[in-house]
Amino acid sequence: MATLNGSQSTIKALLASDISICFGNPGTSEMHFLAALDQIKGIRCVLGLHESIVTGAADGYYRLSGKPAVTLLHLAPGLANGLSNLHNAKKANSGILNIVGEHATYHLKYDAPLSGDIEGVARPMSHWVKTSTDVDRVSHDAALAASIAKEKSGQIATLILPADVSWLSTEVISPAVDPMPLKRVEASVIQSIAKTIHQYKNVVLLLGGVALRGKALAYAGKIAEKTGCRILSEGQNARIERGHGRVAVQRLPFDVKGAQETLKDTQHLILIGAKLPIAFFAYPNLPSLLIPQNCEVFTLATHENFVELALEDLMVELGAQNIVEKTSVFTLNSMPTGDVNTDSLGQFLGACLPDNAIVVDEAVSTGRGFFKPTEQARQHDWLNSMGSSLGYALPVAIGCAIAQPDRPVVALVGDGSAMFSVQSLWTMARENLNVTVLIFANKAYKILKNELVSVGLTSPTQTALNMLSLSSPTLDWVSMAKAHGVEGFRVGKIEALVKIFNHCINQRGTQLIEVDL
Amino acid sequence: MATLNGSQSTIKALLASDISICFGNPGTSEMHFLAALDQIKGIRCVLGLHESIVTGAADGYYRLSGKPAVTLLHLAPGLANGLSNLHNAKKANSGILNIVGEHATYHLKYDAPLSGDIEGVARPMSHWVKTSTDVDRVSHDAALAASIAKEKSGQIATLILPADVSWLSTEVISPAVDPMPLKRVEASVIQSIAKTIHQYKNVVLLLGGVALRGKALAYAGKIAEKTGCRILSEGQNARIERGHGRVAVQRLPFDVKGAQETLKDTQHLILIGAKLPIAFFAYPNLPSLLIPQNCEVFTLATHENFVELALEDLMVELGAQNIVEKTSVFTLNSMPTGDVNTDSLGQFLGACLPDNAIVVDEAVSTGRGFFKPTEQARQHDWLNSMGSSLGYALPVAIGCAIAQPDRPVVALVGDGSAMFSVQSLWTMARENLNVTVLIFANKAYKILKNELVSVGLTSPTQTALNMLSLSSPTLDWVSMAKAHGVEGFRVGKIEALVKIFNHCINQRGTQLIEVDL
Fold it and tell me: Mean pLDDT throughout B222-227?
């Protein structure tokens, strides 16, 4: 067997583990790994100009492909830059394999400028962390990390690769490691929940994760049609399949009162890949838990279970397999006219979202009302931020467009959010990704202005207002696009938006539209 | 005594601790704190559109003012976004007080979207971390955190503030807590080192940290003048005072061979606020430690000591107090002409740096040769990245300009580095900061292209080259400046650079010059 270095053996193991893409921002400690990626072909390499782009792209790639990507990150600070989108990915149950370069093992004691506690940085946002210190074990560690990333509907695995382990020689190449299979839900649980649904009114199926896609969603629709129970989804979802031909699912409202109102008559809540409905934040006189006091909660399946099979079993148990579920039908309402506002934007999306679109939604305050008017849009997927750390949408759009290059990706982003990962535009341009970016430019962290009032500061002065305002100076998004090699447009009226959007959707490549609010 | 909430009592304690600035990017969990900043005046608030701007600005502010700033950060992901510049600040011994909002204590168990292990995220880049869970203790915790930030030449203190601790009532306001004083170096150490300097040739004083400023630097100059020992500085320095009227200090070269050559005859190395000279990275056939094998190493003072006093004691012990140290004299050489390259740029800086300039240097590959030709420039301070995580210069320039608003700040930044914290430009524009940004646009992570060859990949293909290239598309820095509200220029010849630079230096506010390489 030919002798390889540690990096080369790692890449062989990654290829055996069906890893085919690497998002990265490498530095010196990753040079052996990068050289190996160059020598052993089969893993596509995509550069991000900040690590939040790298990790966010891996999140988006997983949400659409179901496959972990590798990220290539530069020691503790490089990993740190990617943490906030790893936070979002972790909350979305996306599988990612981070490979972080480290100083040579013998060099660590000198505390060089880039030295840091990589394991410590990784741990809060990883399910699994390991520093690989033996060149004959490194390919196995990589295969193990890939399997961990695939388990439990997707996990974050972080493998730390010291430079000397990268450059030393080995003859060992590990085969792929099988991930632990998802657990099947026990028959007794299925039967008990079926009984509850059969017996009671005011039953809600709360769907989350993969329950909102494909057959699982159809099964839930059949169950609802047969038994009269309601279907809701969590307030934010990693990816929900909706629009024409899909079962329509109402989302739990974001605000405490709205969520309480939606759940007020619910006496039996069945969690299916979803978590207990709770408030996004606690407020002095509002509850954390949003279900009524007398509501009984059952768990059909968590992300550790085979959710689709659990829903199939439940459907069969309830005799709903031959029921035809109710699905949305695309309905072209009249085009909105005049001012751009939440209502007209919702109408616009309902009418104009192209068939098979991937919508990445980080329109924090502007977009709260977009869900209802797009229920009868053309068939599409809708992605939310699950960790709510700003700057998720643009990088996630990159990953989506790379995973499914023939589908149109539409990123809906507030100006404040977009600024957290604005460098994404460059990667979109470089990779010629099929993305239309809508920047909702309200020139503020608008959601926080409401929060400020709700904490009792009814007459804030400039001290506080300046910390929530994006004006003076106003960000110029057409120039921002141009700076990154992307074509940009600015619109102030909804008719112009419709026209430009349709133009953009019919072009390949990336375009940005600043929607001036 | 009037009743305050936890945030208000915290701010009173911060004011008592002489904290006067807050760089922040707050979210919902920080709204009570922001409201309190609005109600109790005295702390200036500066918004950054990404947390790396916030923490980097606090680093720059400390380097020029010697005072810790507060950063205001949003839970675990917000802190995570600021980590890489906290890494740089920690390595620079800059004092910073991070205040991180957290969910209400009773809400944590529900694992809301923004929940995360804040302490875990903070620990790798902090000297001190505490979650304050008692409203009657929170102002004391804040005062303690402020004192910790001031100790040992500056430390990173992270105080985590749960929302309910922010909003509950208290009557307790803590007075300031005295920081532990710096340790005075014992007389026996001074005497022993004086004896070595007196007795031997080939002695090097290796200066770092505050030893490179003010009286400390002058004392070192007198010692050198009297005894014939050499003065060197570490390869990177938090802030070095140089140019006209200052003792010239040669910097240890970055590359292993250059550093070894510089130190090759050194038999006695005296560390004064500096660490042992080591390689930036380990390479297969090069040493980690850069001093000759027979070199004896002594430590006069670390950052935990009163460095200036140690140098004064040493000077007196050597009878050098009445010696006049040799200092640089501003010499205006002829202006460079023609192409922009490392040599002509160095000449340009030597001639054109304005008096009293603050130079923030992150010109990673372009700027390696700038030090020598600026030795006889007008009087200025020169700041390096101490942690070498990219994206330090633009935020640090913000902090410098706020700490010393009447001095011209010149940021020297590679295009790759600048993209890690490009949002800084907006804060510069908003605060009308006196900063001239020079972007050295070589359209590559150029330093890494050399590294790739040094790991043995002599003929890389596009797979590797694309990961180190910033071309296709080319970043347009004039548009980038405009997007952020900053005036931008592009120059391709050195004459144009001289002209535009002089124009910019004579204006208030922020300008950006793209130097096309």
Answer: 98
- Out of B37, B164, B420, closest to residue A50 by CB: B420
Contacting residues for B31 by C-beta, under 8 A, at least 6 apart: A448, A451, A452, A454, A455, A457
Q: How confident is the model at residue A1 (pLDDT cuts 50, 70, 90)?
A: low
User: Where does the pLDDT of residue B1 fall: very low under 50, low under 70, confident under 90, or very high at 90 and above?
Assistant: low
Report how far residue A246's alpha carbon sits from residue B331's, in angstroms, rounded to the nearest whole number: 76
Output DSSP code: residue A117: -
Which one of A463, A471, A472 would you mutate to disrupt binding with B, by most B Cβ within 10 Å of its Cβ?
A463
Q: What distance lies between CA B369 and its chain's CA centroid?
A: 20
CA–CA–CA angle B442, B443, B446 (5° rounding): 65
Which of B39, B123, B464 shows the shortest C-beta gap to A35?
A: B464
A1: burial class by Cβ within 10 Å (0-12, 13-18, 19+)?
Answer: exposed
Q: How far apart are CA B491 and CA B486, in angstroms?
A: 16
With a threshold of 0.90, does the pTM exceed it? yes
- For tokens 């089969």, what's the residue? A42
Angle, CA A153 vertex, CA A148 and CA A156 arms, to 5° = 45
How far from B85 is each of B79, B363, B415, CA to CA, in Å? 11, 17, 18
How many CB atoms are located within 10 Å of the residue B202 CB?
Answer: 16
Q: Average pLDDT over chain A, rounded to whole?
A: 96
Banded model confidence at residue B333, pLDDT cuts 50, 70, 90:
confident
ipTM above 0.90, yes or no: yes
User: With contacts defined as CB-CB under 8 Å, which chain A residues touch B107?
Assistant: 278-279, 281-282, 288
Number of Cβ within 10 Å of residue A379's Cβ equals 18
Counted across chains A and B, CB pairs separated by less than 8 A come out at 306
Of B63, B28, B62, B24, the C-alpha closest to B44 is: B24
Nearest-5° angle of CA B293, CA B299, CA B303? Answer: 130
Query: Chain B neighbours among A 120-159 (CB < 8 Å)?
Result: 120-121, 123-125
Q: What is the 3-state secondary structure (H, E, C) of A395-432?
A: HHHHHHHHHCCCCCEEEEEEHHHHHHHCCHHHHHHHCC
Q: How far apart, in whole angstroms, are the C-alpha atoms of residue B503 and residue A158?
A: 49
